[in-house]
TrEMBL record:
<keyword id="KW-0964">Secreted</keyword>
<keyword id="KW-0472">Membrane</keyword>
<keyword id="KW-1015">Disulfide bond</keyword>
<dbReference type="Pfam" id="PF07983">
    <property type="entry name" value="X8"/>
</dbReference>
<protein>
    <recommendedName>
        <fullName>glucan endo-1,3-beta-D-glucosidase</fullName>
        <ecNumber>3.2.1.39</ecNumber>
    </recommendedName>
</protein>
<feature type="compositionally biased region" description="Polar residues">
    <location>
        <begin position="359"/>
        <end position="369"/>
    </location>
</feature>
<dbReference type="InterPro" id="IPR000490">
    <property type="entry name" value="Glyco_hydro_17"/>
</dbReference>
<keyword id="KW-0812">Transmembrane</keyword>
<keyword id="KW-0326">Glycosidase</keyword>
<keyword id="KW-0732">Signal</keyword>
<dbReference type="GO" id="GO:0005975">
    <property type="term" value="P:carbohydrate metabolic process"/>
</dbReference>
<dbReference type="GO" id="GO:0005576">
    <property type="term" value="C:extracellular region"/>
</dbReference>
<feature type="signal peptide">
    <location>
        <begin position="1"/>
        <end position="22"/>
    </location>
</feature>
<comment type="similarity">
    <text>Belongs to the glycosyl hydrolase 17 family.</text>
</comment>
<dbReference type="Pfam" id="PF00332">
    <property type="entry name" value="Glyco_hydro_17"/>
</dbReference>
<dbReference type="InterPro" id="IPR017853">
    <property type="entry name" value="GH"/>
</dbReference>
<dbReference type="GO" id="GO:0042973">
    <property type="term" value="F:glucan endo-1,3-beta-D-glucosidase activity"/>
</dbReference>
Length: 504
């Protein structure tokens, strides 16, 4: 009995601490508008070599669903817009859809969400729009009939144009033309605990406003930021601004507790000569910095402390998609399974879930100092620098949960580590420790405990610097209270006492 209770307490204890291997918020879209894609079995192996935890399909291809069986990868399957009328008109059609596309594969294949239709509200087809909610309801009832209600969620996907206003983010609202139809859908999502799925694309925002400062804002690169005049929050990237605008729109209709899922976002690596924005460098910067931002777990200013589930578009280029060249150039991987460019998704990458996440960095001392944040730099500025630095191929594993430099878990400490790692990797010019004038070179070694900052200089090793000392106080970042390290130690002592007490 004592052993059983002790084991239970052990499980409770470890459930309070995130695994450095778990990144359930990173997903990818698996489009199939192509004639040169690798076999599903090869794609399944590719996904298992990465930190990608979820895959979104636009249909319900049985070969792909079957190939993902036993991988643990979460699968989103979709009912096409053409399926909506029959699903809405006949509950038996919904039952048959579930019987054909879910039951033969679940639970070996981890189906987690069914999207009914894609951007239906933007179709300008009033009949289809009116049929969307009944179709979703019938699919939900079909799931409940086979005891899968709640285990598999039901939603639909929207384009950002569903918003009538998105600036500033705190004033986000749905376009009046969609509000009537959305009210029933949002009530359904709230009642069933299903997410609101949206497709934010800073890529398209930049194409409509191709200024240099807009590009930096879209790519998570250092920039002056954009203040929200209502809240005083300064936004340092377009992704957060767009997601928070959706949150505000949901709040304005009384559904702020409905979870948001980013069903699509990405950046094209090439395009036509008249297209603004597509390039390998920009695609690598956006996707790499987005992944680093999600891994930081900082969240958005209006939803701090939790990363929004995000499906990057796309796994592969789709060579048969119509439209400009950029439409066929969103792939993270080539169809020969090699990376189109490296954004740190490989499990062997230090910035993902590889073993290096729990190690301190080591290396040759080649510089005469360390790069750290300047006094007075704001959390917003430091978060932007952190996201950018971790997107440049440096090893940010040690500041991930479980890493040697994760604690203290605050923006200043994590930014200090990332800034210095980038500086040490660079030619060590003073300009490499600028970060939009938020960083400076110091001769005092910022290393502490088992967290070692590579570099060199006259400073003593192991100095408890201001970033470490700050863990003695609760800090707030965009309204989120960050945990004290001492709480973890206290919890451990209490846990050990309980086990000893129970065993006695």
């Amino acid at each position: 009995m004592a052993i059983s209770i002790s084991l239970s307490l052990l499980l409770i204890f470890f459930s309070h601490f995130p695994s450095s291997h778990a990144e359930p918020f990173i997903g990818v879209n698996y489009g199939q508008v192509a004639n040169n894609l690798p076999p599903p079995s090869e794609t399944a192996k590719l996904l298992q070599s990465t930190s990608i935890q979820k895959v979104r399909l636009y249909g319900a291809d049985p070969a792909i669903i079957k190939a993902l069986a036993g991988t643990g990868v979460g699968i989103v399957i979709g009912a096409a817009n053409g399926d909506v009328p029959s699903l809405a008109a006949d509950p038996n059609a919904a039952t048959q859809w579930i019987n054909s596309n879910v039951l033969p594969f679940y639970p070996a294949s981890k189906i987690i969400l069914i999207t009914v239709g894609n951007e239906v509200l933007m179709s300008n087809d009033p009949n289809l729009v009116n049929q969307l909610l009944p179709a979703m309801q019938n699919v939900q009832k079909a799931l409940e009939t086979v005891s899968l209600g709640g285990k598999i969620k039901v939603s639909t996907v929207h384009a950002m144009t569903v918003l009538g206003n998105s600036e500033p983010p705190s004033s986000g609202s749905f376009a009046s033309v969609y509000q009537t139809g959305l009210k029933g859908i949002l009530q359904f999502l709230s009642d069933t605990g299903s997410p609101f799925a949206i497709n934010p694309y800073p890529f398209f925002a930049y194409q409509s406003d191709p200024r240099p400062e807009t590009l930096a804002f879209c790519l998570f690169q250092p920039n002056p930021g954009r203040p929200d005049v209502n809240t005083g929050i300064k936004y340092m990237n377009m992704f957060d601004a767009q997601v928070d605008a959706v949150h505000s729109a949901l709040k304005s209709m009384g559904f702020e507790k409905v979870e948001i899922v980013v069903a699509e976002t990405g950046w094209a690596s090439r395009g036509d000569t008249n297209e603004v924005g597509p390039s390998v460098d920009n695609a690598k910067a956006y996707n790499g910095n987005l992944i680093a931002h999600l891994r930081s777990m900082v969240g958005t200013p209006l939803m701090p402390g939790k990363s929004v589930d995000t499906y990057i578009f796309a796994l592969y280029d789709e060579n048969l998609k119509p439209g400009p060249s950029s439409e066929r150039a969103f792939g993270l991987f080539k169809t020969d399974l090699s990376m189109a460019y490296d954004v740190g998704l490989a499990k062997s990458s230090g910035s993902s879930s590889g073993n290096s996440s729990s190690q301190t960095p080591s290396g040759k001392v080649t510089s005469t100092g360390w790069c750290v944040p300047k006094k007075g730099a704001t959390d917003e500025q430091l978060q932007a620098s952190l996201d950018w630095a971790c997107g440049q191929g440096i090893d940010c594993g040690p500041i991930q949960p479980g890493g040697a430099c994760f604690e203290p878990n605050n923006v200043a400490s994590h930014a200090a580590f990332a800034m210095n790692m980038y500086f040490q990797k660079s030619p060590k010019n003073p300009a490499d420790c600028d970060f939009s004038q938020t960083a400076t070179i110091t001769s005092q070694n910022p290393s502490y405990n088992s967290c070692v900052y590579p570099g060199g200089g006259a400073g003593s090793v192991g100095v408890m610097n201001k970033y470490v000392n700050s863990d003695k106080l609760e800090r707030k970042t965009n309204g989120a209270v960050e945990p004290k390290v001492s709480f973890s130690l206290s919890f451990l002592l209490i846990f050990m006492f309980l086990i000893l007490h129970v065993d006695m």
